[in-house]
Design goal:
The structure holds 3 protein chains of 3 kinds.
Chain A (H helix, E strand, L loop, with lengths): L1 H21 L22 E3 L9 H5 L5 E4 L10 E5 L8 H5 L5 E3 L14 E2 L1 H4 L8 E2 L2 E2 L2
Chain B lengths: L2 H6 L1 E5 L10 E7 L2 E8 L7 H5 L7 H6 L6 H4 L1 H11 L5 H30 L2 H22 L8 E2 L2 E2 L5 H26 L2 H7 L5 E2 H7 L4 H4 L7 H4 L25 E2 L1 H22 L11 H6 L6 E8 L4 E8 L8 E5 L1 H12 L8 H7 L4 H5 L1
Chain C lengths: L6 H11 L4 E6 L2 E6 L4 H11 L3 E10 L4 E10 L4 E10 L4 E3 L9 H11 L2 E3 L28 H6 L15
Parallel strand pairs in C: 2-5, 6-7
Antiparallel strand pairs in C: 1-2, 3-4, 4-5
Helix pairs in contact in C: 1-2
The chains are: A alpha+beta, B alpha+beta, C alpha/beta.
Chain lengths: 143, 378, 172
């Protein structure tokens, strides 16, 4: 009896070893591969200039004063310039909720690491482009 | 303490660098192996939340509250919202009520799972630390699918909730619950029948119901004494859906010491809490009514509130969590907001509970109260 | 006489025992009472007797500006499901009141916090060291409305300054 139980144990151990050897690792090869983010992920924002009316609702909704609109900036003629400060942003989503013109969205890009603090102050050009995939998201193609 | 003992006494600090003391420190006066005096120090985590709330609008307020305790974010933000809704006099849609209740209970399960792991780690039972934390990941995935954030969820808002359930969320929540239901008996066996655990916790930090109430303890710490003190039953809330559910307040009544509880009882109590929460969610899931999740009129009403005062209370994972709110006429921000975190009392009661125990038991006494520094420092 | 079981009975009994205590509002499970500052110890002792197994839930200050302060005490009894709110009006630059932390030890730290945040003194409190504040803020009473928060970092960042706004406390 004991012999069979020991054999059974050995078999279970072997089963585990084989499964662990040939199964896919639970970790991701991060810079080359990323996990799947849900649709509602509150990552960095994207600003769609065509829709924006520069009403400033996002600025008013922001609890940490991370958004700034520069009304005097004439470089962007139709709309004012939108500056994002990601050293302050807490990704609460109130600005996206406050926007009634579909001009501001979250993207599933959450890795915002930069070499310096200044690089986290996104200027108007940077906030309307995504440097990399996913370009297409929520049935809408960005850039 | 007699003077000749005082001569032998050594003062030593527990924390703030100690691994178990993340964000707190206590000055212990030790004679030999016994602690004769405990002076808990607060303030390492102080973020001046009450002052910050005075500069935030009523929609932004819950964001501050949920950062008081990230483990129970759904529960932590609720008392503020409840107070705002009381002043505005609004009722949220039926669907929002049920969704809120489900997520609050899921948050309670998540917080308790974290605590099982943390407490076991403090006792040196690391298997029990990692196993519940694997199951906890499934709840975090549910939160992420629902709100887009794993910890800082900001789910409820005055007038309803911000995110709706969909098929994916329901599937993930169901999977998390199934996994926990499957593993719960195993966790119970692992801890409650483990001789190490029983030796470390039986008879440690024994206090009676009357004493604990005077120190201000509440929640599972009181329920473990055999008293069903629970705001979910005692304080009916218009904007929550506990009345749709048939449930009983779980209590532990240990025949060895009736009316008292030790660290072991509180562990058993927290297993029962999880079972109750699973029961509540399981009953509510088929009952989610159709309809809107937020009432735009009610939400608009909370932009500017009339003058008034309200007291929002909720039974948090760790006890009675309340927010007192005073507003002025047509104000966009509160005049004064007071947060009462349940752990303020737990941490204070160390002063009374610890003297007499050995130094090795100090962390058991502390951990058995399920304290979280964010709640006392605010 | 049977012990009181409803908020109105608790309030009536407290007012009978202590002339000077006034009922502010009695609604649902809550009884709100206004207590003169000198009587707080007697009233809290009565609350201890009247409410079976009272939980000292919360205690905090409110700055009503112009050197007027309110202290609010909350007691909850699970046995009869009654929440009692005691409200004390205080006046003066640094007002003082009797401490009740020997009756309910749970209020000791609440009083300590109120002392450092509002500058309200508690006579007979064993230990009024600062609880939460860092050393540089001790004695500045940050939860008073006259306290100016530190805006240095805001100016550095070049973001718009929030408009200063004075809210009037509602005068009832």
């Amino acid at each position: 009896m004991g012999m069979i139980r020991v054999l059974g144990d050995i078999f279970r151990v072997l089963k585990h070893i084989v499964r662990q050897t040939f199964s896919r690792p639970f970790t991701y090869f991060y810079p080359f591969e990323d996990r799947e983010y849900p649709e509602r992920t509150r990552g960095r924002h994207i600003h769609i200039r065509e829709n924006c009316t520069a009403c400033g609702q996002c600025v008013r909704a922001c609890p940490v004063v991370a958004i700034r609109i520069d009304k005097s900036d004439r470089k962007y003629e139709k709309d004012a310039a939108l500056y994002f400060d990601y050293t302050r942003c807490i990704f609460c989503g109130l600005c996206v909720e406050a926007c009634r013109f579909n001009a501001l969205f979250h993207t599933p890009v959450v890795d915002l690491s930069e070499p310096s603090r200044e690089a986290l102050h996104y200027d108007p050009e940077r906030i309307e482009t995504l440097e990399r995939e996913p370009l297409e998201w929520r049935g809408r193609r960005f850039r | 303490m007699s003077p000749d003992i005082r001569d032998e006494a050594v003062e030593m600090w527990f924390g703030p660098q100690h691994v178990s003391a993340h964000g707190w420190a206590a000055k212990l006066t030790v004679v030999g192996d016994f602690i004769v005096e405990c002076d808990p120090h607060a303030g390492y985590f102080h973020r001046s939340a009450e002052k910050v709330l005075e500069f935030r609008t009523f929609k932004q307020g819950p964001l501050v509250l949920e950062r008081m305790c990230m483990l129970e974010a759904f529960l932590a933000e609720y008392p503020y919202i409840s107070a705002v809704e009381q002043i505005a006099g609004v009722e949220v849609p039926e669907r929002a009520k049920v969704l809120r209740t489900i997520m609050m209970e899921a948050s309670r399960i998540h917080s308790l799972q974290f605590w099982w792991g943390q407490f076991s780690a403090e006792l040196g039972l690391f298997a029990m630390t990692l196993w519940p934390w694997v199951d906890r990941e499934f709840f975090l995935d549910t939160f992420e699918e629902l709100t887009g954030s794993r910890h800082a969820v900001s789910f409820s808002t005055p007038g309803g909730v911000r995110y709706d359930f969909n098929e994916k969320v329901l599937k993930k929540l169901d999977r998390a619950l199934q996994r926990l239901e499957q593993h719960l008996p195993k966790f119970k066996d692992m801890l409650l029948r483990s001789p190490t655990f029983r030796m470390r916790t039986k008879g440690i930090a024994l206090f009676s119901y009357e004493d604990a109430l005077r120190w201000g303890l509440s929640g599972p710490n009181i329920k473990a004494c055999g008293v069903p003190m629970d705001l979910r039953k005692d304080w009916p809330d218009l904007n929550l859906a506990y009345d749709l559910v048939d449930w009983e307040v779980p209590v532990v009544d240990n025949p060895d010491h009736p009316g008292q509880s030790d660290a072991y009882d509180r562990m058993v109590q927290r297993f029962l809490e999880v079972e109750t929460s699973i029961n509540i969610i399981r009953q509510l899931l088929p009952q989610i009514p159709e309809g809107p999740i937020v009432d735009p009129k009610a939400r608009a009403k909370t932009n500017r509130l009339p003058a008034g005062e309200a007291y929002g209370r909720v039974e948090g994972t760790r006890g009675v969590t309340t927010v007192w709110l005073k507003t002025t006429e047509k104000a966009q921000t509160p005049y004064r907001a007071k947060i009462r975190g349940p752990c303020f009392a737990s941490y204070y009661s160390l002063k009374h509970l610890v003297p007499g125990s050995t130094f090795a038991d100090f962390i058991v006494v502390f951990g058995s109260l399920d304290p979280y520094p964010g709640w006392w420092d605010r | 006489m049977a012990p009181p079981t409803t908020p109105s009975e608790v309030a009536a009994e407290l007012m009978r025992r202590h002339p000077g205590v006034e009922a502010h509002k009695i609604e649902g499970q809550t009884a709100e009472l206004t207590v003169p500052a000198g009587m707080i110890r007697d009233v809290v002792k009565s609350v201890d007797e009247l409410l079976p197994h009272a939980l000292p839930e919360s205690m905090f200050g409110v700055d009503l500006q112009d050197d007027r302060y309110q202290l609010i005490y909350y007691f909850w009894s699970h046995d009869i499901r009654v929440l009692v709110q005691l409200r004390v009006e205080l006046e003066g630059e640094e007002p003082e009141i009797d401490s009740v932390c020997d009756i309910f030890p749970g209020l000791e730290w609440h009083e300590r916090e109120t002392h450092e945040m509002f500058g309200i003194g508690f006579r007979g409190h064993p230990d009024l060291r600062p609880l939460l504040l860092p050393d540089e803020l001790v004695g500045k009473y940050p939860l008073r409305k006259s306290f100016q928060p530190d805006r240095r970092r805001l100016a550095e960042s070049g973001l718009p300054q929030p408009r200063p706004r004075r809210q009037e406390a509602n005068k009832e």
